[in-house]
Amino acid sequence: MPARAMNAATTETPSTPLCWMDGRIAPAAEARVPVLDHGLLYGDGVFEGIRFHRGRPFALDAHLERLECSARAIGLTVPLPRPDIVHAVAALIAAFGDDDGYLRLVVTRGDGALGLDPRSCPTPRLFIVAGALRLVDAATRERGVRVIIAATRRLPPDGLDPRIKSLNYLNHVLARIEANAAGADEAILLNAAGRVAEGTADNIFIVRDGVLRTPPPIDGALAGITRAHIMALAQGAGMTVAETSLAPFDLYTCDECFLTGTGAELIPVASIDGRAPTHCPGPVFRSLRDAYHAAVRA
Ligand code: PMP
Q: Is residue 169 exposed (0-12), middle (13-18) or buried (19+ Cβ within 10 Å)?
């Protein structure tokens, strides 16, 4: 077991990323997955990204529920019962040492033959990585991100249901490459019908005429856990929340726009293809962000 490097709370130096696999915790840089794992060969697997705060995982039940649904939908057995995963997560966070961080929980089809038939993979593999994840710096988080609408489309839901959080992120990676090439911070993917789906690793919301709007999963949005929290908080505050199809026009003409995700947390959007929302960060964003941070702390 590695000694933790330093405590980020006091030194700003994040601890060394660690990996839990088969009941052992090792530095993530030393953890190995065999080349015949079908997660690597075919993207055959599912995953979750989970944050922990003050040493405790946030919304772990919701993440494990979604993981199990993703796995069931692709006919994959999560190889550990839920209480054992909870135990592994607790052990990993304790070993990592920092109070705050990010977990990547991955279940792959496991090792098999050089052919995609999953019947050659008798034993699914589960591993969990703990590390730091900061997607944008504090100044950008306050100023807002510039996003583009990518030419790369979200996979159609009749090809791959967007509620499955699978290891196949290639079109999201391609959209991200487009954002990088355009000098933008993030890309928004449309679905095949030209409706807004989501960001490369985050959900999108707009505010227009006091109504909070976000695309439904059938339009290509992951059923995000942060998204669900934000919708519940907004409803609790008396706002009208609409899960509704959005066109690029709706993004270009909104009052506010922001992104949500476990990694991203809540980030305001300063421009979409060069068009600025009326406010950034806007009053709805600020109040939801404050409420969300209070809920996370609680
Ligand atoms: N969409 C995609 C494609 C994602 O990868 C993520 C990150 N998990 C999200 C949305 C946001 O979901 P969540 O709030 O559950 O992290």
A: middle
Residues 6+ apart with CB under 8 A from 137: none
Integer Cα distance of 286 and 264 in angstroms:
15
Question: Is any atom of ligand 1 closer than 6 Å to the C-beta of 198?
Answer: yes
Residue 12: which pLDDT band, with cuts at 50, 70 and 90? low
Q: How far apart are CA 66 and CA 84, in angstroms?
A: 17
Distance 193 CA to ligand 1 centre (A): 21
Decide whether any atom of ligand 1 lies within 6 Å of the 201 Cβ: yes
Ranges of each domain in the chain: 4-131, 138-297
- The response to whether residue 214 sits with its C-beta less than 6 Å from ligand 1 reads no
User: What pLDDT digit, counting tens, does each position of 78-135 carry?
Assistant: 999 999 999 999 999 999 998 999 999 999 999 999 999 999 999 999 999 999 988 8
Fold of 138-297: D-amino Acid Aminotransferase; Chain A, domain 2 (3.20.10)
Domain range 4-131, CATH class: alpha beta
What mean pLDDT is predicted for residues 18-28? Answer: 98
